Amino acid sequence: MRQTLYLLSISVLLPSCATMLNSKQTSVKIISNEPISLIINEDTVINNSTEKKISVNRSKEPLIATIYKDNLTKTIKIKPRNSFAYWLNIYPNWHLWTGFLFDKNKAKRYTYPKRVYLDMTDTNRQYYTYLPWRRKGNIDFHLSIPHINIFLLNPENESSKSSIGFWGLTFGLDYYHSKNQFINASISGVSDFFFPIPAAVTIIGEYELMSSIFTTLSNNHRLGHFTFGYGLSYARNIWDYQYYDNFDPPPATREPIKRSHHSIGLVFPAYYQIGEIFHIGIVYRPSFFRPNLTKYIEYEHVISIDFAWKFGLFKT
Which range of residues forms the domain containing residue 52? Predict the structure, then answer.
């Protein structure tokens, strides 16, 4: 009974996240690859420019924009979507969800894409919500942090080793051999360091560290906000057992040792683009062939949750 009264009180005090948190207007950034003039609601908001941030009223109706470029006139309809504040009605009214009912017919429920890209060379698409300026011959610089890394290694004369840890760094280049496909060449280093943020730490007693330094070459496909690829990898995998006698720890169970080996395998990267340059993804790198070991056929893998930035170096 007390819990029911509490939930009813919350639903009355916080009837609607969208109504309370959203303002009447929202902002939309219009970006084009050529200078254009743009009219929205009979107001000229872009006059022979490639970029403009505008404020528009929230509505369940599409935003109508008329584009002028030389002798070309084009009308686009920017579709609304439910705002983040609207979905916040799941909490704290998760039991009653009264906020959804309260916001159902409210204009504040809606928003528009934060960025709208207009490709004036593409006559088949009205607009994009991700950066579409990719052409055959373009080159991007790829910088990423494979922050969460899952290891499965089989060092020589050791039992199978598995671990989850943090930190890594990747540098690479993307070369577009068609509008929606590119070849990526990268060099990376990843580890299973136990602490997720930069900090001074003290290691006591026995400690195992796994790491991998590798290069990859992959062919990748763009599909909307997504990219996915497949290719080859060559790596040096390292397992390192150390003993630190800080603060009088228990005695070591064995002598410190480091084992490393080379491995050849595959790579399968997949990313989702957020904004103009930022991507979040997962990189699965299985390997099978270890040419410098006695047991040269053995399955191993490294799986990374990757945070990537891509900067245009050369545009056709």
Answer: 2-118
